[in-house]
């Protein structure tokens, strides 16, 4: 996102990449410029495409601190919102929860974007790496920081809530099923794993397509402005949380995660049944990110010049093939 001098080298505009901005949202990118940029990076080495220097860059690790703290605060606040929304006995807990989550996400993105680019979500980081806005190495550092932050946020929440609430609400964790008392003893209630996986894939793709795409596309980012784009991201997250919890209306299903790090923290701290189906909250978003990346490759090149990014995933694959051919 916005660049912090001397801290984020790749992320000059929103989630990173080229700082050349087109004049308006509907203005196609000049395709000859894309071709020329692609030629300039054609001879870049594989290690440069992978951004291996980022693994040993103090600046990148310092920027990842914003990802760690941002994700920790995100997990603490969202899980608190989940618990308090249902604990308050309001008639529309899903609506209240969704609105508060939307506000929280927008605020935290605004707080972290000047330092690290404002990801606080492995979905955003992985998508940015696939498109080539950041290197895969930087993505590894960021996702590691986000996962650590998720655990710290869950630990902080566990420290301030009672054991009864922590047990009854599983620390606001991402759950597909829960163990509930039944007439014949404890029973497992919730959503089918297949349904949860499809919801995770669909909602995560919509999240990327309907909001994060605006940040990736420099023309829209420039035309709309930083604050509006991040508010849209928050609104879309809130809407998808509301839709996923309303359309299923199933006790035990906590709704789509769309953020593996946010789901990982409570799972590690709470443990037990929270791990049931936890893989869904990783596999679903991963598939959605790959589908979104393919979408960016299919659309007309004059509307998105992703090939010019040296870290683009297809460019990395081409470099790998070329290196094998030389051998």
Automatic annotation (TrEMBL):
Q: Which UniProt keywords apply?
A: Membrane, Transmembrane, Transmembrane helix, Transport
Subcellular location, in the record's words? Membrane
- Key word Transport present in the record? yes
Show the InterPro entries listed in the entry. Aquaporin-like, MIP
Q: How is this protein situated with respect to the membrane?
A: Multi-pass membrane protein
Q: Name one Pfam family in it.
A: MIP
GO function term, MF aspect, one? channel activity
- In Swiss-Prot or TrEMBL terms, this protein is called Major intrinsic protein
Q: Give the organism, scientific name.
A: Dillenia turbinata
């Amino acid at each position: 996102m916005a660049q912090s001098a001397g801290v984020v080298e790749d992320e000059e505009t929103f989630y990173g990449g080229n700082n050349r901005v087109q004049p308006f949202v509907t203005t196609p990118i000049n395709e000859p410029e894309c071709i020329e940029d692609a030629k300039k990076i054609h001879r870049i080495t594989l290690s440069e495409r992978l951004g291996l220097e980022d693994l040993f860059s103090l600046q990148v690790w310092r920027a990842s601190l914003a990802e760690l703290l941002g994700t920790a605060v995100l997990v603490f606040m969202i899980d608190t919102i989940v618990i308090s929304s249902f604990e308050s006995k309001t008639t529309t807990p899903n609506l209240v929860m969704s609105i508060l989550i939307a506000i929280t996400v927008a605020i935290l993105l605004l707080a972290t974007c000047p330092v690290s680019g404002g990801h606080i979500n492995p979905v955003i980081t992985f998508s940015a790496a696939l498109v080539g806005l950041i290197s895969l190495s930087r993505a590894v550092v960021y996702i590691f920081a986000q996962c650590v932050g998720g655990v710290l946020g869950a630990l902080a929440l566990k420290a301030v809530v009672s054991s009864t609430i922590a047990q009854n609400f599983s620390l606001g964790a991402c759950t597909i099923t829960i163990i509930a008392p039944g007439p014949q003893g404890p029973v497992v209630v919730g959503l089918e794993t297949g349904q949860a996986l499809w919801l995770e894939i669909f909602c995560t793709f919509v999240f990327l397509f309907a909001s994060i795409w605006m940040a990736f596309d420099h023309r829209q980012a420039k035309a709309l402005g930083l604050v509006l784009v991040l508010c849209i991201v928050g609104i879309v997250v809130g809407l998808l949380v509301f839709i996923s919890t309303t359309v299923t209306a199933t006790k035990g299903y906590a709704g789509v995660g769309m953020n593996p790090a946010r789901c990982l923290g409570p799972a590690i701290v709470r443990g037990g049944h929270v791990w049931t189906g936890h893989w869904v909250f990783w596999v679903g978003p991963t598939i959605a990110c790959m589908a979104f990346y393919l979408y960016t490759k299919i659309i007309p090149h004059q509307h998105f010049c992703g090939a010019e990014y040296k870290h683009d995933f297809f460019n990395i694959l081409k470099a790998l093939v070329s290196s094998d051919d030389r051998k």
